[in-house]
Amino acid sequence: MRPSHLLLAVLVAAVWGVNFTVIEIGLDHFPPLLFSALRFLVAALPAVFFVGRPKVAWKWIVAVGLTLGVAKFGLLFIGMDAGMPAGLSSLVLQIQAVFTALFAAVALGERPTGVRLLGMLIALTGIGAAAVDEGASGPLGAFLVVIAAAACWGLSNVLTRKAAPPDALNWMVWVSTVPVLPLLLLSLLTEGPSADLAALRGFDWAGAGTLLYVAWGATVFGFGAWGWLLRRHPASTVAPFSLLVPVFGMSAAALFLGESVSPLRWCAAVLLVGGVALTTLAPGRRTGGTGGELRPEVRPASEHTLTEA
């Protein structure tokens, strides 16, 4: 990988990591579901008029739009609004790699190797340590909501794997069109028209900045650059850079939000990131043929997984 490409991969990881801090700030200006809806609206418009027609079937766009946009991001924003720290959220969401491997085993017949199973066990140990730390210092319910968001992310990864979009930017922009109306409806039903109107009436430069960052920075730029890198390098070369996301996420939260990181949380971070590395990078195997023999997987699941927050 050229130095310029390496720097771009690190920059994307940094943008995605800092995104959690920006979300935390944005939640001071918008109710969580309204914020998520506006994020996808700004990501889709006006970009949808410039990326061309969808390059995969609409059934996959709708399926991922609902699981990723409505379920995953809706739960993430709700969990963070309920008290889940930004830095810890950036770390805990990485358990999506374990959910992705589990769902892929069921839906795609990708049998995990012993190394991948070991990675899952290590990552789950890290989640356990993080749960103990959060249960002692913060709302455990919000922690579980973010875990649920990671599970939805894992499911969306498998759906994306099935869709196999050839253009990551085109894919993400069209996927962003799906969650807007469902999230707006859910916001009206659960957060209330008065809360939504108050947030819109109080729209200021800080709120606009957070909205533009999460929509254009983390979504449009992040996915566009990530897809550009995947088209020029093997997924196994690009994927490890996503492990930097929680590093930047926890660092940005500590720097800008004053979040403290306990020794137990650092231990959880090491276990989780190490386990995710084994789970993501270890070669998988897929059941093939009529006799049930195993053959190496040609295209790793990480090639078509979504890593942005």
Features:
globular, mainly alpha, 309 residues
Task: Tally the helices.
Answer: 14
Radius of gyration: 19 Å
Which strand order does the major sheet show?
1-2-3
- CA-CA gap between termini: 24 Å
Topology, number of strands: 3
Largest sheet: 3 strands, antiparallel
Shape: globular
What is the arithmetic mean of pLDDT? 86
Bin the strand percentage: under 5%
Query: How would you classify the helix and strand content by structural class?
Result: mainly alpha
Q: Please trace the helix and strand order, writing H or E for each element.
A: HHHHHEHHHHHHHHHEE
List the helices and strands and how they pair.
Blueprint lengths: L2 H24 L5 H13 L13 H24 L4 H7 L3 H12 L2 E2 L2 H24 L2 H24 L4 H10 L2 H11 L2 H9 L3 H28 L2 H4 L6 H12 L6 H19 L3 E3 L6 E3 L13
Antiparallel strand pairs: 1-2, 2-3
Helix pairs in contact: 1-4, 1-11, 1-13, 2-3, 2-8, 2-9, 2-11, 3-7, 3-8, 4-13, 5-7, 6-14, 8-11
